[in-house]
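sanity check both lines:
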Amino acid sequence: MKTRSLKVLAVVGVACAVLVTGCAGVKLQDGVAAPIFSETPVDPAVGRRADLMFQLLAGEIAGKRGDVDEAMLHYSEASKLSDSPDVAARAARIASFAKDYEVALASAQRWLSLEPDSEEAQQAVGLLLVRMGRPKEALEHFKKVIDKDGEKNYEVSFARLSLTFGRESVSDDELEAMNLLRKAYPDVVYAQRAYAELAYRKDQYGSALAALDDALRLDPKDQPSHILKNRVLLASGKVDAALQGMKKLLLESPDDPELRHGYARMLVQAKRYEQALSEYEKITRMNPDDLDVVYSTALLEIELKHYDDARSNLKKLLDSPHHNNEAYYYLGRIEEEQKIYDQAISWFARIHRGEYFL
């Protein structure tokens, strides 16, 4: 940034010098020089370049001051003057951050015109159209990105879009955009699953289940679709069906620790703590060095008042920089629960940072 700023100042300085030397003075009778324009006009390219450098410099200064709106205006002007896709991309990002989607879209379209093969520019235009309530227009841009990535990358392409949409919450337009995509790719299991994921996050469980049924008709062995279906069933209150679905998957893959972990988490959500503890103990035997699992097991043991087992597991975490403060806290809680107050104070006193610091 420092190097670019120096270049900016240099070019602005040259431009100013050209403008100054392009004028001459005529002596008046009172001795005051009156400026007149030179017969040789300033080269328009130099003026345009100086204007661009001014807009970039002003935009950077505004950004450093935290004035996003001012930075956006200058970068928007710069994107019109420059043939650099980087300038247009930066203008689009700043305007998007400022939530001025009209300006952001214009800059993103400029970026795409300068770099037509850029998947990032193509996706940026699509996302901005969705944010502006125009999902049908966005469809062609998303399709170009997906088709360019090719069939072998369909899973990644649709998963990336699903994650990009609704980072905070899923909007109606985002859900509609993904619905249009799944209709455009009716034979692609990943398109159906991506829509189901968004519908699930938007609490539209019926729509999610319908899309997952489509996905599983296309590929009955698609495990991620089965897992997501069980999560949707659990969220919609069909607890037994969800847990039965997970148990069926475990019968097919009994040595899959991630799958078993997912089942254990669902048991916790369903408040079936004894069953969940049994699953966590199995996972611990599979991966005895996984301290996250040890921690989860200890918390369940505390919930079930299996204090001796909880102590044993918590003490395994004392040398872990990621879990030691939590271990001190819960060891203290166990002693406090059992009214061994001096031991509780001793454990609490070892906490030095984080949310458990007293």
Confidence is low (pLDDT under 50) at residues 1-40.
